[in-house]
Batch of 2 targets.
Target 1
Amino acid sequence: MLTKRIIPCLDIKDGRTVKGVNFVGLRDAGDPVELARRYANEGADELVFLDITATKEKRRTLVNLVKEIAREINIPFTVGGGIKSVDEIEEILKAGADKVSLNSAIVRDPDLIIRASDAFGSQAIVAAVDAKRVGDHWEVFVKGGSEPTGLDALEWIRRTEELGAGEILLTSMDRDGTKSGFDNELLAEVNKLVTIPVIASGGAGTVEHCIDAVLAGKADAVLAASIFHFREIEIADLKNKMARANIPVRTIFEMTD
């Protein structure tokens, strides 16, 4: 089993970190720069920054905030939200991001994945997919989860890999913010279809949920927000318990009882 990653997520609205349930009911969770610094110091493997209202508000990602965060951390950093062209991807990478997360823009223009991966390498291109169960399948939603696309999520995810995405950030809209556990059925189905890493997002509430996402869902990484923001789970403790479950993790901590 390859080493698994723990990734805190900063959902950004109006320059602040926020968190809701099922993509609505947002509440303040703190200053993003302070949180980013804290997570880097506490042993997070990566950090994800999502400007969650940029696309809906038809504006660009907060580049200056990206620069501020990049100066404070020494771990890989993925940025998403409102990014819709190769030029904008270049601007975000130059601001200090290691990867960009693309969602609405690649649904509208799938060939953007090809152009972006050709320009910056597939390792820098993350296909973000917000999936919601509709009947007997999962459907892709865009614009911060507010707009259905009619796309079958499994088919779309397979296509993003074919076009050149290097990683999938898969968010279950049904589980997002509920702390009821990841959608391991969805994760497992996706991992049957693709060979690139899949990040599990939406539903983390306990250490066991994170372990199950890896063991049952076959996730390569687990992403969470509120459980870290509000210190319901400490990153060090999560890594220790995952290691005890025979899940390989990158760690700077001694394994203690």
Note: The two ends are 24 Å apart (CA to CA).
Target 2
Amino acid sequence: MLRQRHSIRLKGYDYAQSGAYFVTLCAHQRKSLFGNIVDGEMHLNEAGGIIETCLYKLPRFFSNARIDQWVIMPNHLHMILVLNEQCTGEATTAKSQNTMNNLPVVASPLRPRGTISGSLNAIVQNIKSVTTIKINNQGGSRGVQVWQRNYYEHIIRDEADYQRIAEYILNNPQRWELDSLYTNQNG
């Protein structure tokens, strides 16, 4: 019997509407894949550099989105993603193309309508897919998991919430050993 996945998204909320979202993506098994913290500063390795490049390029492919703040940590990525206008695009299908790399986007057979184009979920799927393929290509591997299956998101409700999260992102490398996602880089 197949277990049904439980959604951690806010039931009934439209994740394609304008707004700001605090998003965290974790590396597969929380392994330190993206670099190291040295003296409170993040030093990206090649995989971390690939992620950074993809984040800079994101607005070229999602005109409704921008990333206001982000930090790539050894085993996760935090970002504030802002959707500027309501997304009204058609749902992606198995035949539609990801504009970032002309990679196929596959709709879930359990959700035949697929992901809504331009939504938070579509953007996160794109980041995870493109970076995984590029990191695997850079490493000469194929099919190696880079990201955990899901992601954490928080709908930013007001300016005070935004400022608190932006400060958290900015200070995350200096506070690495106190982070709930901290893993000893040497062990």
Note: The radius of gyration is 17 Å.
